[in-house]
Amino acid sequence: MKLSKEEKKCWQRHYRIEKLQDIPTEMSGFSSIDGDADDELMFYFAKRVSIPEMYLKCTDVTDEGVKHISSIRNLKELTIADHINVTKASIPYFNEMRHLESLNIIHSEITLSDLCESLNNQNLKTLFVSSEENEENIVEKGFILKERMPKCDVYLDTYFVTDGSGNPETPIF
């Protein structure tokens, strides 16, 4: 089996890989901060690589990329922070991620209200989300999510379960 021209270009651009046998089948994690990770790379990751942890901050990934990410094998932790092109259209893909335990979508276009409408991934244990500036009924929305996903702790406006000193943050729900 050979790589298509498009796939070969993608692997060359991101990893200087030219042959199919050089593409890893497993990675311990993937991180891109202010990087050139994009929907195309997510497509090829989903096609070829098992990745348990993915951290994306300020990349070119959009809802289309999230669609591809939903097919990545064994993904347990996903951070898609500071992405203006990740919207509530991605929520159905989050629901499809059966191994996903931690989802961080802080500073994306997805709001707590959006999540209350349709997020329902029973495997989630932690969820990080931003509140809207004038968000109303935060407590009610939190209860909706907690009722729907009782094993999930929801953190509002924070990236981590501990603060900079290592002290535990308290989930809002």
Automatic annotation (TrEMBL):
It comes from the Bacteria. InterPro entries: LRR_dom_sf. It comes from Aequorivita aurantiaca. This is Leucine-rich repeat domain-containing protein.
